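Before relying on records like the one below, remember that each one covers exactly one chain. Contacts with other chains, cofactors or solvent are not represented anywhere in the record.
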Amino acid sequence: MTVQENGFAIVKGLITPEQTQTIIEEIDRAKIKDKHGIRNADKKFNAIKQLIESKAVQELVASILGTRTSSTSAQLVRAIFFDKTPNKNWLVTWHQDKTVALNTKADITNWGPWSFKDGVHHVQPDISVLNQMITLRIHLDDSDNNNGCLKVIPKSHMHGILTQEQIAQITASHTAHYCEVNTGDTLLMRPLVLHSSSKSTTPKHRRVIHLEFSNYNLPHNLHWA
């Protein structure tokens, strides 16, 4: 089964133990008050920037999204570091990822509604944009049901953008798949596949680098924020 068909897939051992340790050590050294959710992680950590630019990540993204031109690869949309711990624990209800962040607000057909959060413009783009995106969740720790691994509803991305009522119906009638992974593994995910996670019940880290890529060509004056 492929990520195109199921909406998700697991790639074993995408990054090495050495890469994992380098990233963890740089984050641990950083003077950031709340390290449980760090946005723009590519701009704050050199090790994460190098990971994004690595051959392993770029070739994996290209194998799914292809390239926009013969010399230009898919673009990074968003990079977030998450760390679910006993001191900072949370659950995420069933949802789809339906918004992107841009440098400015613009009048684009079938894009909306717009919002402004944390100093950044967010918008739900046309479904064609979401269908040209892929998420990589690169795990720096083993992750299972005990420490809040992601759960997905396979093939749910094929239903398009769903209402809350439709989400409730689908999650009630379909069996969730628990995406249990080891350190260094990567969960590939289409934005519209239904996913959620429970609170961690074990006292350990669940560190994840969440990367979103797109091969959609934005209008001239826009770029991903």
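The domain at 3-214 is CATH 2.60.120.620 (Jelly Rolls).
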